[in-house]
Write a structure and sequence with these properties.
Blueprint lengths: L1 E4 L3 H11 L6 E4 L2 H11 L3 E5 L7 H9 L9 E5 L4 H10 L3 E4 L4 H30 L4 E5 L5 E4 L1 H7 L3 H4 L17 E7 L5 E13 L2 E10 L1 H61 L6 H26 L8 H16 L3 E5 L8 H22 L4 E8 L2 E8 L6 H7 L2 H12 L3 E6 L5 E8 L10
Parallel strand pairs: 1-2, 1-3, 3-4, 4-5, 11-12
Antiparallel strand pairs: 6-7, 6-10, 8-9, 9-10, 12-13, 13-15, 14-15
Helix pairs in contact: 2-3, 8-9, 8-13, 10-11, 11-13
């Protein structure tokens, strides 16, 4: 539908005879006020608007149409007998899409009408699709003016908050998001429904330059289900870690028991056997010249068995652990130096710090695993182990000056060594960080709560 606005009947008839044979529906108005009334009721697709008219001229009509949201997008082609470049620039600045000069050239008028109608319909089609996307989006879309008053919402907003569209338009955004921060591009906030219930949401804020001025687009996503899933996953992981920690404690208890049984029972038997062998040598050595050599061989085998028993017992449960964590770490460092030939320096800020059994085992096993990794892979010339208390945390550092490694590559392989150490730390409410670069050595830093509650968990 094309509207022709002109105060000259002859020009209106000319436009009708030009446009109607081309298949366009034409409506007409003889002055500005009549044109505004028709536009309000009929909403034409294009307006051919005379510039010079008595009373309300074409510029005034254009200004009124462009100031109203419902008619702002309708394309306007000015029709004028003037060839004034300034007048044309003024019209284009007000929002007109084109100018046609009088007397009109019929092919030119038809070409320009056809072009601008096609552009307008395409624009309306795209805008319609965009409106549908926004209207039926799974998230709430809300437009705010510069005073944070709501000017537009989509269907999801009504569903999510419980208000109707009419109830929300013109209301402050604090109705829905009490702690809205316009300066934040995104945030996690608590939103309020109409019934007063709150729910967690992620919001994204984006300024938009529109014909209505600068509007703020607020995207609200309800994350209630996601937060619940995250809590359930976190609880599940914590339960798994608790089970792992209890399993570790049970395993250490079994190691301690087996080590004691091996040391006490098997060790005593071997010691008694060696004493009996010595007695046989003293009692019958003079009767058989070959007996002393046989006895010496037997003693060597028994001594080797005793050393094996001690080694197995120490690997299962180092005796130094019974003397406390500091003694156990000193023993571990000395054993590392003895077996590898690499100096391992141990330092402790306070040798009298109390350590319960659970934390002592975790720290000992992590240091043991770290030193094992150094001996196997680092090619280090020195290693250091430090133990200190920082505030409410017990901090342990294991460092070497060896070859280092690519931490990212190791993390991607998900090796069980580092993963196991981290899980042991997390199970006690702590953390384990690794710093490593090829050629620059490695530092393992362990931090766990210095105090545990009676159930063995972190306070």
């Amino acid at each position: 539908m094309v509207m022709v606005v002109d105060d000259t009947p002859a020009m209106i008839r000319l436009m009708q005879t030009t446009l109607e044979p081309a298949g366009y529906e034409v409506i007409t108005a003889a002055d500005g006020p009549a044109a505004l009334q028709l536009v309000e009721s009929l909403r034409p697709d294009l307006i051919l608007l005379d510039v010079v008219m008595p009373g309300m001229d074409g510029y005034a009509v254009c200004d009124r149409l462009k100031s109203t949201e419902m008619t702002r997008a309708i394309p306007i082609i000015f029709v004028t007998a003037s060839d004034d470049a300034d007048a044309e620039a003024r019209g284009l600045a007000m929002g007109a899409v084109d100018f046609v000069s009088k007397p009109i050239n019929v092919p030119v008028v038809l070409a320009r009408v056809r072009t601008h109608l096609a552009l307008y319909r395409h624009s309306r089609s795209v805008e319609g699709m965009f409106r549908d996307v926004v209207e039926f989006a799974p998230d709430a879309f809300i437009l705010l003016d510069e005073q944070d008053l709501i000017v537009r919402v989509n269907h999801r907003t009504e569903q999510l908050f419980g208000y109707s569209r009419d109830q929300l338009i013109g209301q402050p955004m604090t109705w829905l998001v009490p702690e809205l921060d316009r300066m934040a591009a995104s945030a996690d906030v608590q939103c309020l429904r109409m019934d007063g219930t709150a729910f967690p949401a992620e919001i994204s804020l984006s300024p938009m330059e529109t014909a209505m001025g600068t509007l703020l687009m607020v995207l609200v996503r309800d994350v209630t289900e996601r937060r619940q899933a995250e809590r359930e996953l976190s609880d599940s992981r914590q339960r798994l870690r608790d089970m792992t920690a209890r399993s570790e404690v049970t395993r250490e208890g079994e190691r301690k028991h087996i080590a004691r049984e091996i040391h006490d029972e098997l060790g005593q038997v071997l010691t008694a056997l060696r004493m009996e062998i010595s007695f046989v040598e003293m009692r019958f050595g003079a009767l058989d010249s070959a007996l002393p050599d046989r006895v010496s061989t037997m003693k060597t085998l028994v001594d080797r068995a005793i050393r094996g028993v001690r080694s197995v017992s120490a690997n299962l449960r180092p005796p130094a652990l019974n003397e406390g964590l500091v003694s156990a770490l000193e023993w571990l460092c000395s054993e590392f130096t003895r077996h590898t030939g690499t100096p391992c320096v141990f330092s402790v800020a306070d040798a009298d710090m109390p350590f319960d059994e659970t934390r002592s085992i975790v720290v000992f096993r992590i240091v043991q695993e770290s030193l094992t990794n150094i001996s196997r892979h680092a090619r280090a010339s020195q290693a250091t182990v430090s133990l200190e208390r920082r505030g409410s945390a017990l901090c342990v550092s294991i460092a070497d000056d060896g070859s280092g490694f690519d931490l990212g590559a190791v993390d991607r392989r998900r090796t069980f060594g580092l993963l196991g150490m981290r899980e042991r730390a997390i199970a006690l409410g702590g953390s384990l960080d690794v710093e490593a670069r090829p050629g620059h050595g490695t530092v393992v830093r362990l931090s766990i709560p210095a105090e545990l509650d009676p159930d063995g968990g972190k306070q």
